[in-house]
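Lab notes, practical 5.
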Amino acid sequence: MGFIAPLAFYAVISFVFIILLSARVSFVNAGRPSVFFGFFTALSLIVCAALWYSMESIQETGFVLTILVLVLLNELITGKALFMEYNSSQISPGLCREIGNDMIGQMVEADRSGAEHADIYVLKSESDDNWPIALGGLPMIKNTLRHYKILRRDFDITLIPSDEITEKYHLINEK
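Output from the prediction step:
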């Protein structure tokens, strides 16, 4: 109790201060994590002290609390869902960079030639989004290249999935 009582007093004072401050300034700010940091720190220390006390008093709680901590740590790390690795085709990052640089090179070449329209050849994939070069991502790629002055002018681009590019990088279409 000698450790928990001052922390509980601090948590109550912090909570009351947050309520009074948000009533004076703005209630919207009360929900910000930086505002509640002190309160939740004190609350966390109280919980830790209570767990420590229970582990020292009752021997069986050590085993149960260890499992509980591991479950909570697992939830903290994974959250509510596990996601499949983005690179599900197992293409190396270096090869992805090389494929991307090839596509950018085709756009830069079209920009230099002064063409009003360019056909950009990319990998052909059997997946719906043509991974790793998604056909719907073209406007973002082109806008980024224009923003960083890699492309000097705006022109129409059409992505064309090509078997030749797939063979060039020694990739096989999954069917």
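Observations recorded by the TA: The radius of gyration is 28 Å. The first strand starts at residue 117 and ends at 123.
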